[in-house]
Amino acid sequence: MTEPLDPPSSASPLALRPGGADRVELMQTFVRIVESGSLSAAAAQLGTTQPTVSRRLQMLERSLGLRLLQRSTHRMKLTEDGERCFARAKELVTSWEAFEADLRGTGAEPEGTLRVLVPHAFGQDMMIGPLADFLERYTGMKVHWFLQDREPDFIAEGIDCAIHVGELQDPSNVAILLTDVPRIVVASPDLLRGRPMPEHPSELTAFPWLALTTFYRTDITLTHRETHESERITFDPRMSTDNLFALRSAALRCLGVGVASAWVMAEDIAQGRLIQLVPKWRSTPLPMYLLYPYAKYYPARLRRFVEAMRIAIPTVIEEEQRKIR
């Protein structure tokens, strides 16, 4: 069981100091240094400077009368005392955050900053609407919105949560399934000029192909929506990319046939810039998850964000899907 923090007093070496850091802040900084691996990374995650982080570490070491870290030009290592201090500080910081949340009440408005990692294509377009609604509702919130097509290292990068499309790599995280992202086959009308419209996936091998290396490279399987018949197509892609918008641009420039998230292509199909090929056939939908690391306590800002995204994102995906039905 975690012991409560003593109230600040002038006799305590870690007491609150006018214009300085209090005991919780010193321990929070120490925990962030260890988890991020460096003073500079901790400073970036805390939104402060490296000299400030270094000064807080020195204050903590002086107050405890212990050397917590061994530092050299190229590496940083916990001392034996540092290892014991880190385990205890982690418990104390978590308990303090839970204590603050309890005092504020479960119905309190969330405040503070969330660091969220989202896929490039979704994060710079479709998800901005739900994000804006969230920030308009909770005026005390700020969000750092990072665009990356991968699962984060939550602790090392200081990420609070992530939206992830595709299969999961780390089973230790909490994963909430938001929706499935349907994928369709598209091409420019110019690519089909002078050729018959393909009616079966096997006919698509006659065209040049574009590969989205995050999900497929030299083959893909399509399934009929009604009969559930499956057809595997193999190809040597004319262009490969790991970016969904780059694949879309290549398809618009008539470079080849591609398979992509339906909502990304919906507007282009509606405007006639792209054509959906073999429309009764689709690739396996990709699961979209909201991820965050497991913990005994979750701050209100994260809980409210998770609640908002669980409602908003499936709705947005469904609205985009209607454009191509």
TrEMBL record:
One Gene Ontology biological process: DNA-templated transcription
One Pfam family here: HTH_1
Keyword list, A-Z: DNA-binding, Transcription, Transcription regulation
PROSITE patterns in UniProt: HTH_LYSR
UniProt GO molecular function: DNA-binding transcription factor activity; sequence-specific DNA binding
Span of domain HTH lysR-type: 22-79
InterPro entries to which the protein is assigned, alphabetical: LysR-type_TF_proteobact-type (IPR058163), LysR_HTH_N (IPR000847), LysR_subst-bd (IPR005119), WH-like_DNA-bd_sf (IPR036388), WH_DNA-bd_sf (IPR036390)
Family per similarity comment: Belongs to the LysR transcriptional regulatory family.
Protein's UniProt name: LysR family transcriptional regulator
Species per Swiss-Prot/TrEMBL record: Pandoraea aquatica
